[in-house]
Amino acid sequence: MKTIIEFMADSHKACDDEFAHAEEAVLNGKWEEAAPAFKRFHDAMIQHFRMEEEILFPALQSAGGPAGPVQIMLMEHAQMKDLFGQMAAALTGKDAQDYGGISETLLIVMQQHNHKEEQILYPIADHILAAQRETLLGRMHSL
Amino acid sequence: MRMTSLSTDQSPPLSIPLSFFAVAPLFLVLAAVLLAFAGGNPFTDPHDPALRAATHCVTLGFMASVMFGATQQILPVLVGSKMPASRLVAIFSLLPLLTGTLSLCAGFILGKPALLNLAWPLLGIAFLIFIVASLVSLMRAAARNDTRTAILLSVLSLAIAIIMGVLLAHGYATGAGLPYFEMITAHVKLSLGGWVMLLTIGVSYQVVPMFQLTPGYPKWLSTVLAPAIFTVLLSSAVLLWVDPYPDRIAGGLESLFWLLAIGFAAVTLRLQQQRRRRVADATLSFFRLGMISILLAALFSMAALFYPAAGIYLRTLSVLAFLLGFAMSVINGMLYKIIPFLVWFHLFRGGMKSGVPNMKQIIPETWMWWHYRLHAGTLLAAMSAPFWMVAARGIMLGLLLQGILLGAAVFTAISIYRKNVRLIKLAHT
Q1: Which residues in B lie closer than 8 A to residue A97 (C-beta atoms)?
Q2: Whole-angstrom distance, CA of residue B108 vs CA of residue B20
Q3: How many domains does chain B have?
Q4: What is the spatial distance between Cα B323 and Cα B308, in angstroms, rounded to a whole number?
Q5: Residue ranges of domains in chain A
Q6: What are B35-57's pLDDT values in tens digits?
Q7: What ipTM does the predicted assembly reach?
Q8: Could you say which of B93, B126, B143 is where a domain stops?
Q9: Dist. CA B227–CA B15, nearest whole Å
Q10: Would you call B10 an interface residue with chain A, using a CB distance cutoff of 8 Å?
C-alpha cells in the first residue's frame, strides 16, 4: 500500500511528464501534437487539483489539520489555473514564444508548490490521516 | 511540525535581492578595468596586485553580493526558514560589503595600509552579519535534509575563510609576522572548495531535479558528499601547520577533494542528460558549462601535483576554470532564472491579474544566449591567458562586456517591474 506522499508524488511526476511533452511540441512548432499534449497535461493537473481540493484537503481539515497552509495551496492552484488559461490562449494563437515564457514561469510555480506539498503537507497528511489512508487513496484513484 | 515554508510572507521584498543583483555586475566591470591597467600580463604571476584585486572584485563584489541577495530568497524555499530581520540584514551587510571590497581592492593596487585597515573591519562586519543571520535561519529550519547540511557546512567554511582573510588583510596592513603562505592556502581552499562548492552542491540537490525535471541525486551521494568535502578541506587546512609538512598526505587529500568534486560534476551532468524537459534552455547550458569547468579545474590541479615544475601556470588555470568557469557560469544561470521569476511573482502577487509579463518577456532568451556565448568565449580565453597576452586581454574584455550585459538585464527587469507597478496603482485609483 502506497503512502499519501508516494501516491501524490507519482501524480506530480506524471503531470511533469505531460508538461514536458507539451512544451517540447510547442517549441518545436509541432502544433498538431501540441494541442492534444497540452490537453493531456491540463487534464492531469486538473485531476490532481481535484484529488486535493475535493478529497485530501477536506479530510485534512476535518482531522484538525492546519488550515493556513491548505489555503495557500488553494491560492497557488488558482495561480496555476490562471497560467493554464494563458498557455491555452498562446496555443490557440500558435505563439510559441509566448507559450514558452508562460510555461517557464509555470514550471517554477509548479515545482515550488510540489516541493512544499511533498516536504510538508503530505507528510502531515500521512501522519494524521493514517487510519483512513486506504479509503482516501481509493477515492482519489477513482476520481 | 512547523509550517513556516508554506507561509506567503516567506519571500523577502523584491528590493532586497534586486539591490544585491544590481550592484554585483559593476564589480565585473571594475575587475576588467583593474586588470587592464595592470601593465603586462597579470595572469603570469599569482601574486600580482592587480590580479589579487580583480580576483576579490569577482569573489566579494560579484559572487558574495549575489549570494547575500540570493540566500535571502532561496532559504525559505530550500529549507523552509527565512532569514531573520531581512531588511536590516540586507542593509547592514550590503553597505559594508561594497565599501569593504572597494577599499580592499584599492589597498591591494595602491599598497596603502590605511585602505586595508579600513577594509578588514568593514568586510568582517558584512560577513559576520550574513553568517549569523544564515546560521539562525538554518538552525530554525524545519527541514533536516542534505541541502541544509551542505549549506550549513558552506557557511562554516565561509566563516573560517573570512577569519583568515581578515587576519591576512590586517597582517598586510601592519606588517605583522604571520604564517602568510599557510593562511593564504587555507583561505583559498575554504573559500573556493568550501563556501562556493558546498553552496552549489546544496542548492543543486534541489534545483537540478526541480527545474530540469531530472531524476534526483542518489541518496548515498547526497548524504556523504558535503560532509566528506568539508572534512577533507578542514584536514588539509590543519595539515598546513604540521611541521615538517606531510607532502604526500597533503597531496592525497587534495586529490581526494578533486575526486569528490569530479564525482559531483559527473553525476550532475549525467542527471541533466536524463532530464525529461528536453527543450533548449540557456540557464541549463550555463549550469552544464559550470560542471564541465569543475572537471577542467580538477584536471589542472591534479596535473600540478604530478608536474610541479609547471605548477604555477597549472594552478592559475585551475583557479580560472573554477572561478570564471564554474562559479560564474552557475551564478549567471541562476540569475537568469531567479530575476525574471521574482519580477513576475511580485507583480502577480501585487495584484496584477492580467497582462503580467511572462519570464521571457522580462529578460528575452536571445539576450541570455548572447551572454552565454560571450561567457564561453571568456572562459576559452582564460585557458591560455597565463601564456598569451591577447588571451589575457580577452578575459578583460569578456568581464567588461559580461558586467555590462548582466547589469543591463537587471536594470531592464527592474524597469519592467516599476512600469507595471505604476499600471497596477493606476488601475486601483
Answers
A1: 360
A2: 24
A3: 2
A4: 22
A5: 4-141
A6: 998 888 999 988 899 999 999 99
A7: 0.87
A8: B143
A9: 34
A10: no
